[in-house]
## 1
Amino acid sequence: MEQLLRGILGDNVSVYIVLAAIPLAWILPFALFAVWLERKVSAHMQDRLGPMRTGGWHGWSQTIADIVKLMQKEDIVPTAADKILFVLAPFVVFIGTYAAFAVIPFSSEYVGSNIDLGLFYFVAVSSVVVVGILMAGWSSNNKWSMFGAMRSAAQIVSYEIPGVLALLSVVMIVGTLNLQEVNELQRGWFWNWMIFQKFPFVFIAFMIYFVASLAEVNRAPFDIPEAESELVAGYHTEYSGMKFALLFLAEYANMFAVSAVGATLFFGGWNSPFGDFLSGPLWGVIWFISKGMVFIFVQMWLRWTLPRLRVDQLMYVGWKVLTPFAFANIVAVGLWMIL
Amino acid sequence: MPETKETLETRPPVTSTGKTLRTEEMVLNMGPQHPSTHGVLRLELVVDGEIIVDVTPHIGYLHRCFEKHSEAMTNYQQVIPYADRMDYLASMSMDLGYAVAVEKLLGIKVPERVEYIRVIMVEFQRIASHLIALGTYGLDVGAFTPFLFCFRDRERILDLFEMTCGARLLYNYIWVGGLSHDLPLTFIDKAKEFCEYFKPKIKELNDLLSYNEIFIKRTAHIGVLPAEVAINYGCSGPMLRGSGVNRDLRRNDPYSIYPDFEFDVAVGKGEMGTVGDCWDRYFVRVREMVQSVRILEQALERIPKEGDVQSAVPKRIRPPIGDVYARTESPRGELGFYIISDGSVSPYRVKVRSPAFVNLSVIPEISKGCMIADMVAIVGSVDIVLGEVDR
């Protein structure tokens, strides 16, 4: 990909700009699609139809209409808000999310930055989101927003630990943090995927990672930072118009980012499940995105099925259940590898 | 427990430079514009972090002078549309409460078919009202889907009401001495159909919400209302029965034709936690829906085929001087109407004993020391309707 772009654009900085913008070309349509899908999934789970009219076929352009509406809205900054932080916060949240896409390998030929510490970078950078959320909650000068932000900070910090420990047990097996190399190691048929290795320990690691990732992206049953029945809308209560849209976009982009890492580490990333059948750089993109979308669907499925945990129960699950299991899992994987 | 002077919780936090930080409680205003206060209830919370230290409910945002309005009417029947608007989720039960009170004052005996239709309507209304209570309770604890499922089933009950009297929410159906319309021809079959349809739906709701592990975690042991406290506060309905007190006015102080029906009084047993917790109050409503279906099945089977539903409606209502108190079991508890008559065409005074108002008063008692999320669960489990609280 990089060579191709160099060939077209010449050897200058524009190559990197284009490389960096490619995930954006995926995130925007993805978020539009995912919001529509969420509506449809929830509607069909609840004996409804969801949007049916906008655009004709099953309301496909409902989210586009929503975006147009949000763009037209007045951009309100509350009088009592801390203006600089308030305006900055959605961007920080989005930057944190978008920066994580830099190391996500969409295909054998494309990864924003093929660095050796890819996974480490992903974990580190996705935590920047919490800074933005805290900024948003604090600057809104609203007690409910503040609660949302504090909960979010506590939640993301405590769930990062089991999540990272779960990822670590995979890293121990593959011996690399480079996500592209992890993909290469899972080439071939689907039984080469990490999820089927060292059964059941990698599977346990995946479950822990998946639960922790739900908490990290504030999805149900861990959506307490934005629990609409308790905190109205949590940290983005006071946001409107495009700032709200940006926070929303970041949330959906984040959903895909954690799903993508899950798919890469455990389900072969861009590898075809059937060996060389339907494999190649372009098929890779399709496989990768479909795997990601499966996780997105599971996230939606859970959201519309489960009630929400309470904040202390959430901490309990994180610290007293997931973290010990993740540690035990690492020890088990380590022992397996030595023996 | 021996009192410890300084624990981790009581010691004020110290900064790295050695200064002690001042911590204080925060007043948090929950409502009247809040998604989980079921209308326009305002709760003034004093919170220490997420822990609630004190709660003061503020009511009156939906006050519509029901009692004063009733005095200004030119006819006793004219009060009924206002009674409808008190508990707008259980209008039939409100109508019945008022009708029973005025009939007691006048000494009217209504025909048997009217009694049967009233029981059928009120039990349908109980199911509809409980469905909203359970659905919105799911919403309060974060489960969205049960809410829509409950509304789907309630919709069918509203369809039945609509085919009977044309209205879906505020019926003005049960009149003093009779009913506004007779049942339409196909009603009995449709109602039986609904009973058959509804029974598996209760199981669906249980599988989806009642026995959900997270739901139990959120509601068991939360907001425990001991039987003694419930009695002292005058709680009634599912709130009282959830605390394990076997008291249901349909059984304990029968009115209409309830003694003719077989049903069990649902009480909280504390299966998932303590007797009288939120889960018990929730589940009492589920059990009551099952019992309501039982009553409906008997009533639909035995209802007299013929009869004029307006034969006992008095042309002019001019009760003798005196007063009356009549109570009925509304979906939220003991609904009492105290009516004083001065012998004129309109009541001299109407006082309503609103079950939701009395049940609401217990909130400060049971919610101290819980968290904000529990507060939402407790308010939801009390199942208030502000129209009835404020009147």
Note: Residues 14-45 of chain A form the longest helix (32 residues).
## 2
Amino acid sequence: MIPISYYLFLSLTLFSIGMIGVMIRRNLIIMLMCVELMLNSVNLLLVAFSKMHQAKNIGSEAGIDGQMLVLFIMVVAAAEVAIGLSIMILFYRKVYNVDVKSLNRLKH
Amino acid sequence: MEKYIWLIPLLPLLGFFINGLGRNAFSKIMISIIGSGVVFISFLLSVLVFLNVPSGEGAQPQIFHAFTIIQTGNLHIPFSFQIDALTSLFLLIVTGIGFLIHVYSAGYMNEDKGFGRFFAYLNLFIFSMLILVMGSNFFMMFIGWELVGLCSYLLIGFWFKNRDYVSAAKKAFVMNRIGDVGFLLAMFWIYKEFGTLQYTEVFASLSTAQISAFAVGGITLLLFLAATGKSAQIPLFTWLPDAMAGPTPVSALIHAATMVTAGIFMITRCNELFELAPYTKEVIAWIGIITSLVTATIAIRQNDIKKVLAYSTVSQLGLMFASLGMGAYIAAVFHVMTHAFFKALLFLGAGSVIHGMHHEQDMTQMGGLKKYMPTTHITMLIACIAISGIPPLSGFFSKDEMLLSMFLGNKIIYAIGFVVSVLTSFYMFRLYFMTFSGSLRNKKVHPHESPKAMTVPLIILAVLSIIGGFVGIPELFAKNAHRLKEFLSGVVSSHGEVHEISHSIEYALMSALLACVAFAIFLASRMYSGKVDEKATGLMKVFENKWYVDEIYQSIIINPTVGLGNLFKKYVEKSGIVQLVAGTGSFSYYLSKNIKTVQTGNIGMYILLMVIGIVAGLGIFFFGML
């Protein structure tokens, strides 16, 4: 069995890639993808911990709720991506690009 | 009595609503019939009340309860009427003279556009005055007190297109408010000391409750302050001469016969309270007599016919207050009654003259009206004789009684009262001779006698001025002939008011006064028959300019107040309050202007800051303070 620390490092790497991507990229689509990456790294962590929990208490239902939660997060994330993309389409119709620098119209 | 007592004030109120709402719809005849009719019915009912009222020594007042105005905690104020001899006498004066003046107004105001409005106001005034005299507690008197002030304001400023008239109305209102403050404070103090505002309860508890002399003195002084406002005494008398801006019937009704005597009514009503306050009585006597002297001297140099009468009214009111201060309440009420007759007559006669002279009020333009206006002339002459105190007309009896009370009380006050009486006959006959004798000075106008609606009230009032005094024949002439004293003895307690004075002294006083009065009339006839005053010099100039009282008030009260206001406006409001309020706004604007540079609109920057914030927060959470 793969030790839990492997999962932790993988998750941390994915999260950092996502976070840095959000911070340095200007393209909204890529930023959205990076956000999804962060979200999924957390999902991975959740599944890993719940499996660990389950392995420690064999025969019980411990840890099953963590995996259920992940399923819900994926559903919500799908909805969120749908909204994010539709905002982006509307945004594109206004300014004909998807650069985040164009999102300063409300500034005084 | 219970069945109809309510109608007395209610009918004029109804008349007010009908005439007020229908002022443009009804014809003038209908308005005058409604207006005068309601007052006439009230008068008939007042006669019934007068005949049935319990009078004489030890008579208890009748209380008619309607409903409760205020009921909280210990405070219980009912809307109820108290009918006793004093009230019934005032009911007769108010409704009787009120009715005559309504009839007169129908003639006098006939060509005025505001005919309906005028009658509505007059009816409202009668209603308010009736509330004032009929109320059974201080609160109801206060309601009436305020309402008559309002009516006075409305009627002085009746011709509201004239700026001077409007400011005269405002002056009257403001001056009255100063007095009203005294009334309010007195009411609060009475409630604090006695726990009730009902007259009967307050006066009943006077003998049992331990009320300090300070409280009684304070209450009575505050009540007297209210009286100085309403009855135009020093220091608040200057509004009454200006109040002559109103139509002449108003001057006759409100500013001579009824409203201005409210102060005397109130003090007589509370005589048991005032009897316990010797210092207040002293103050009342002195203020009354000084007012009387000052205004009598002003009256001898006025050329406006109504101004003379106005100052004469203030002067007579001053005499009444002086005798109130002597404790001679019945004498004062007696003079209120006779004064109501002849002063209303004088005002109405003056109105008739003004009407006949086509709205000319300046006596230097008049003269020789004897042959143009015979009825007015005769009635005015009767009024002048009556006010001068020549027997057997009404003024003689009441004035004699007042002067006698002053003689018994304080010789200096009596001396001033004597001078005032002589001055009274001088200025009244000056008015008479300037107006009626000689020849007409202004040749352009064509005087004419007034219509019947105006002369008939004059004749009735003249008859009353002649016979009105016989209700109070002094003991000197006939034993127990003073019907008024008998009538009012239940209301006014006679606190050791013993007339220990020999008849010879009384005769001497009387004849000395009559001799001086006769001389004054002779002097007036020599000075003013067909002539007018020469240019005033010295003291006469002071009299002509009304002792500069208005100017003094202007410079010692109004100007400093306005100056202080301007000072506050400049240094407190503009540089203080305005700066503070505007400063709050501009300070937050300044702050936000600097802070808003943080919001660059650069999303990457926001996210970077957010990440740094989260990392820092987690760092603190896991590793303690970094």
Note: Chain A has one domain: 4-102.
